[in-house]
Amino acid sequence: MHFVLLSQEGGDLNFIDIKLDSCLRRNDNKEKQMKKDFLTTLAEEGILADGAIGTEIYKRGIFINRCYDELNITNPQLVKDIHADYLKAGAGFLTTNTFTANRLALASFCLEESVAKINKAGATLAKEVAGDNAFVGGSVGPIKWAAKSELSANELKKVFEEQIKALAEAKVDAIILETFLNLEELHIAYLAARNVCKLPVIAQVSLKYTGEEEGFVGLQPAEAARTIDSWGADVIGVNCSDGPLGVFEAVKIMAKATNKPLSAMPNAGMPKMVQGRLLYLASPEYFAEYARRYAQLGVALIGGCCGTEPQHIREMKRYLKAIKPTGLRSDAAETKITIHSEISDSNKIPPSEKSAFGASLSKDFPISVEVDPPLGINPQKAIEGAKLLKDLGVDAVNIADGPRAMARMSPMALASLIKDQVGIETIVHYCCRDRNLLGMQMDLIGAAALGLNNVLL
């Protein structure tokens, strides 16, 4: 098909012949490239997903007797606000508000004829918020629980196909099959997705972790990973389950069973009843620490499930800034930490060049004496003691870190005062028990900036 445009330049008319089908092909190629970009980005950079949708809807005043999927039509702004909050928190993958938007579940609200409308609306809302800043996954949950009678595999497949087709037609970037409790139903959903679209498929199971002794009850992580891998799913993962620890143990095992990209989206643990409301008590910091552990295992898609909120995703984003999942799978699967200590002789700094105390180590018997930090803000007694020790020929004073488990002046602060006012070498005690990795890194950088070059860990 052709059409002609006329343009005028300097008084002359120019005929521009445009072939419409070539334009359509370019748009189609662009769409195919976008699909490829999701898996490429996942493999090369890793992607942080969003958290719970239902939790946020409930928190914003919509009670559980409502159809949350219908809100895509009846209260679209609320749904967009939730997506926007996750995007602002740092999520690069937004899931649609369509987890139970299948014919069987919607029938409970007399909405079974609105499957396509609700799913397309959900995808459109997420895409409008995501723009070019995030990918959108069409959320599809299990449906057997909503069936009033036993359904055949073919009947289940048709129900899945109806929902997934609507999501695909609304141009989501991937289909995410989540919270499936058994492989049989997940396989039916996977086949339905492959039958109606060519989008990447993320296949996730929910597992039951009971602790170190018993491990997993029922479906096993290795079995799930190998089976889903054999189907050809693009991403294999675990979501919901029993919180971050259970999901960590699961993906640790899955990493040994498959080379496919992994996903991890735990819930916030078991909810507690507080003043008549069910609340999830796992802190954002706790979640973020496990997010970092997932990435260190090589997990490419990390997010949250029930009970997680934008603040969890914001903290996870902060913890994941310096970590990429690519290339860590083979080493991390063994769950051992390898410390690379091979430093060439040319790069080694002799102790005598690190500090004056390091130089004193070449003596027959260097002497240091311990000084406790004050309980308050007055360091004068400790400083006077350091002056006396220096006059007596002591090589260094070592300063304890919170001795007797009491709140005292920071040993780094006191060490800096003594070093400046007395001129004697200090050895700073540093207890790792009360600090996370980021805090330790910050403290050591600060110590170096202050010239405190002797640290006892």
Work out the radius of gyration.
30 Å
Task: Let me know the number of strands.
Answer: 18
Report mean pLDDT, rounded to a whole number: 84
Output the number of helix runs. Answer: 18
Question: So what's the overall shape?
Answer: elongated
Strand-residue fraction? 15-25%
Report on this structure:
With 457 residues, this protein is an alpha/beta fold. It has two domains: 288 residues, Alpha-Beta Barrel (TIM Barrel), CATH 3.20.20.330; 108 residues, Aldolase class I (TIM Barrel, Alpha-Beta Barrel), CATH 3.20.20.70. It is 44% helix and 17% strand. The chain contains 18 helices and 18 strands. The strands form five sheets. Strands 3-14-11-10-7-6-5-4 form an eight-stranded parallel β-sheet. Strand 1 and strand 2 form a beta hairpin. Helix 6 crosses helix 7. The N terminus is likely disordered.
